[in-house]
TrEMBL record:
Main location, first listed in the record: membrane
Originating organism: Nitrosotalea devaniterrae
Membrane topology: Multi-pass membrane protein
GO biological process annotation, one example: response to copper ion
Gene Ontology cellular component annotations, sorted alphabetically: periplasmic space; plasma membrane
CopC domain location: 34-131
Parts of the chain that traverse the membrane: 12-29, 163-183, 204-225, 245-264, 276-296, 316-336, 356-377, 389-410, 455-473, 941-961
UniProt KW keywords: Cell membrane, Copper, Membrane, Metal-binding, Signal, Transmembrane, Transmembrane helix
GO molecular function, a single term: copper ion binding
Pfam families (alphabetical): CopC (PF04234), CopD (PF05425)
Subcellular location: Cell membrane
Domain Copper resistance protein D residue range list: 353-468
Name of the protein in question: Putative Copper resistance family protein
Amino acid sequence: MIKSSKKTKLQLILTIIVISSIFIIPSAPKSYEHAFVEKSDPAASQSLDVPPTKVDVYFSDPVDIRYSEIKVLDSDGKQIQENDQHYISNDQKSLSVSLPPNLKNGIYTISTKVLDQTDGHVTEDAFAFGVGQDVPKSITNNLASNNYQEVSIPEAVARFPSLLGQVIVAGIAASSLWLWGPISRIPRLKDSISQTRIKIDSAMAKMAVIGSIIILASGFAMIIVQAFSINAGILDAISTKFGNMWVLRMITASALLGLSFVIYQKTKSTPAIIPRTYTASLLGLSFSVLLTTSLISHGAATGQIIPLLLDFCHNVFASLWIGGIIYLAFVVMPQIKQITDSHISLSTILILIPRFSILVVAVLGAVVITGPFLLYALENNLALTLASFYGKVLIVKLGLAAAMIAFGGYHQVFVSNKAHAIISKLAIKNTRMQDTTIDAKPILSRFYTSIKIEAFIGIALIASVAVLVDSGLPSSEFQNQLQSLQNKVFALTTNGNSNISGLTQTGFVENGSRIVLSMSPFTTGNNDFTISFLDSNKNPIDMKSTQLELTQTDSGIGPITIDTNKTDTGTFTTNTDFGFPGHWTVRVEGVQNKENALNLVYSYDLFVKPKLNSIQIDIKEYKTPGNSSTPRYPVYDSSRNKIWVGDTSLNSGKILDFDLGTKKYTEHKIEGLNSIVYSALDSHDTLWYIDYTRKMLGHYNPDDNSNMEYPIPNKDFLTSMAIDSNDTIWITSHTNDILKFEPKTTKFDAIKLPDKSDPLGITIDNTAGKIWIAEGIGKLSSLDISTSKVTEFSPSGNYTMEGPTAIISDPETGKVYISEHEGHAVSVFDPLLKTFKKIQLDPAPDNLPYGMAFDEYHNLWVAQHTIDKISIIDPRTGDIIEKNMPSSNTWVQWLASDSQGNIIMAEERANALAIATISAGQPQSNQTDISSAIPKFYFDYAQVMAPSITGLLIVVAFFYCKGVIDLRNVTNQIRKTL
């Protein structure tokens, strides 16, 4: 009767918790991760002719007005907003503040610091608007670069023990309910380990108490950190909506501790196996604690019930897995090892391993479903995720999970199989282990050691989850990442013709402090400079004065000392010229206001280039001897300062060199030569060429006029050639092979490319050790030189490459440029982000983009086949201009550049080479263009994850069936030996 009464009370408690949860979930505040600014009025970087009377800011999440603020600062750093901050029309996702009338012309900064009602995170932002003038890009960059914080270490540290505690309690309760069923159906084994089982349950009760205490202690740490974040007291923090959820969590955790303590006291006073109703109640309460975690998670942040439930289920399944490992490692195995009868101990783990594996495999199947779907709900752009801090931590988490799975496989393959082999022998002999000389201790010790290692890996995985929970999702970080890419001169290639004006670079000095240098428009001529000094927490450092020293390193001009003006705490500005293009060193030296403090010094190495529309281009044509040759593929010889080019006229029998100093041709007659299209120089400055009609690979030495030829085994149409740093020759053709020729052995090898790839252009990135191949089917392949591994890439979504033909690798950034012969465009592939971007050229049907080359200022020149024009692209800004060829019907296909950055063009039908010389021209006036183009990431998440999930589920189903069969077999065999 007493037992029935207690059981009824436990059921009542669980019922109340479930009903409460049903009411809590629909009323959970909607959120979109941490609260960030979605829009504002005035907008960021907006220039107004009429001064505004108020500032309205709209956030992605409801914010707590009591612990949120908007500041508006003038150019002197003085706050000018009125003291009337309020919600806009009671919309808790918006804040407004009034401004004084008749603001003067100038630049104003809006600073926001808000508390997210849902997840309790404090986020900051800052942006500028102008009255009567434009906002310089340097100010925009400087503000953006200091806003994003990847993760709050105090919050992550405070949450980690809480996550660990709930995993422990949920995992040990679930495992206790699940694991012992098969053993209880073998009476002799059940009786033999009954006392051990009592000790295990006693240890489990103690572990549940410890886990519950950890949850409560961590909860107090979380609210203390929250109070510190909002600069308020504990009671103030509890009064927030996040605090209300925290109260619910603490009540549930207290109930969990109370139940755990009751169970522990009962096992201590009257040692016995814990009744299943108590364990089930413990499990139910732990699930309630897990639910409160999900209610302040990224899943709840979407404002939708499905991601919230996915997050909860994912947490439950992960807790069953990791908590079960902890249960085996620190509760079960210490007691199993104390069993003196080796037969009993070995039989016990032989049943526990496959029994637990069935649970883990089922859990992993659920994780395979909930994990990817949850990530899809939070962020479905896989390329963006991988580029973010969130994605990097996610990779670490998945790596730790893979290590745990590997240990599980080890237990199945080595530990379980060895134990199984021993029991099988005993079953055949119909004997017990004490009647044999077999020692089970090594097996038990090995399993005990490996399961503890797996448990510690699981704890590390929980730590990574704590970081994920506290970090912002990729979408909130990625804009800041793109802005930081502007810190590299050639870092960002945009879509279309949008300009990126300005450059920001950060230099790190002593004690984690940093000096942020911003320049606008960052080109030759007049530029605005802004220098900001920040401490390790990105707070301004009080500085007395700052000087710049500018040195033009190419010409040895300087240093030129420039004084600056202080505009705010730790911020200085000046205006000066980059008189010449090329490499500059900008040295910043700041004097601190603090006595005896060292000066803060940093030097920046920059490449300054003129704007595309200011460069001057002079193209001159040089007819071939007799005006009879048809040159197609020019190659620059730096050691001789010559251009080598083949004559594609049939039976020409010659190679031409053009001396860039004398501007004269020399004909090199080669007996039997028909026509040359492709050629390249090796490290010894000897020329390799392809006689494409005869399918011969030729090797010509200009020093002694010697020539060797090697028949090419592939008789198909040859499309390109290149030579790597080891002097290996690589040749593509219309088949799916790439030929590799080793000059030392004079042998050809073939490497298979994807089917129907139709390889065309080829380029080599010797720094990365990769060969890039443009595939005519609209894809890009990379070939690892050292391993010969081929990887294929293709644009996602609606993005297609039409007729990819020529290809070139950017030595500055490693990006790959592919001309689209039928697409009238150039595609840019980023090997780091695995993304494609398109730069649209002249859409005329006769414009057939072909060969490419970089000039002195690292602008990309593109031959526009058949229309007698050349496109010139600035990869940094995406600007494009066109230059007419001096003659008509030139039929330019291929380009090259010399050591001076001049562009060499082979005019096939004009029977000439054309040389384009480039100069900087007159510097442009300081006009700031604040427009920016943020690249889009066309990566179809579903196309990747759908087949992956299907494949993994098939694997999970296989191992689940295997686990069930293994458990049945070992159970039958153990029955025979007992």
